[in-house]
């Protein structure tokens, strides 16, 4: 799924040929009906032959494309731009023959440009918008008379025609920019969420092994029990001085060991998250931080108990090792380690209402140009890494290669919010960057497994 999306967003393939063909057929039908009403029903004079030829060319293009490509064929950006440019020029030819921009159907110039803005990259949208602007400008200056009753001539004031031209140009520009921005933001968010699901699915693969272990435990329990019973009977039947009795005792001991392991795997909670489903807060943070420690980098974990006046015994909370929590905090610590000079400080504290974790580093802090956009997908300040540019409507590569694309903090924020946490980022006065997360008590340290992580 993710690879197909990346290919479609980068090199084209976001719009099917059938979609454009159906829209073109709709335009052919609408143009034909309008031509019939004006020429035959109202009796207005117009160059009917040339108009029919313009409509027939559009219909012929649809027929040729239907014969050449399958209905599910997806158009690359260049192909879609060419076909939409044809639609703009065909409409311009019809309007040239029927009054130019004085024709009320000049509003239809907006259609192809908006379709391009919703499906193509910015460069192709600008090309199509330029063609539309040029077409509007040409038919505003040079065109055939507007169809009108014989003997009457409709002459619109030049100032009014200039107003129509201005309205068309502004309308095309505004609607295309608006549609492109909405489509771009939607594609970026969809791709970011897909990457989040990909990262979470990796965490859940290990959890799924527990479910398999549970099934295996139920299947293996009976034969292992039989082996243990038979071994015990053999041990009783053999004399003490028998040479085989030690082997029988070893067999029975190993069978009992297997039954003990299987009994532990059969525990539902341990099957989901492993034998250590819950850890003290400090031990959990040490476990998450361990893979990111290095010779030239210190990751310091500090757990501060509540004041004596607080309720409770002051013991560290037992936190569930939920996949969302492990991956989310791991991403934040990894980001801090990447930008830190020599120290990453992980601090945790709690009281009667909240459990809080803050990760800070002694690096340069969040760049001002990305600070306001933190939490959005494809926002990065890593040197040499590619985030999604403002001129791109979707990711250029597969989402399973998301490292360095500006998704780390976005994924961490989404996953931690799924556990009930509130994520905040800032540049503290002392320098560096800090990301803090807070949870209401009982959400990740309650007596039951958090609902967000249940299978």
What does this structure look like?
With 455 residues, this protein is of the alpha+beta class. It has 2 domains: 155 residues, no CATH class; 176 residues, Heat Shock Protein 90. The strands form 3 sheets. Strands 4-6-7-9-8 form a 5-stranded mixed sheet. The N terminus is likely disordered.
Structure at a glance:
With 455 residues, the chain is of the alpha+beta class. The chain has helices spanning 2-11, 17-41, 48-68, 77-97, 110-119, 122-141, 158-237, 245-265, 268-273, 281-289, 323-339, 368-371, 408-418, and strands at 12-16, 74-76, 278-280, 298-304, 318-320, 343-350, 354-361, 422-426, 434-440.
Give the class from helix and strand content and strand pairing. Answer: alpha+beta
Helix content bin = 55-70%
- Low-confidence segments, given as residue ranges, are 1-12, 268-275, 383-389, 397-405
Q: Which H/E pattern describes the elements?
A: HEHHEHHHHHHEHEEHEEHHEE
Q: Could you please say which CATH topology of the largest domain applies here?
A: Heat Shock Protein 90
The helix tally amounts to 13
Please state the second-level CATH architecture of the largest domain: 2-Layer Sandwich
Using the alpha-carbon principal axes, give the shape. elongated
Mean pLDDT across all amino acids: 78
Strand order of the largest sheet: 4-6-7-9-8
Note the main sheet: 5 strands, mixed
Strand content: 5-15%
Which radius of gyration do the C-alpha atoms yield? 34 Å
| Broad CATH class of the largest domain | Alpha Beta
Q: How many strand units?
A: 9
What is the CATH superfamily label of the largest domain?
Histidine kinase-like ATPase, C-terminal domain
Number of individual domains: 2
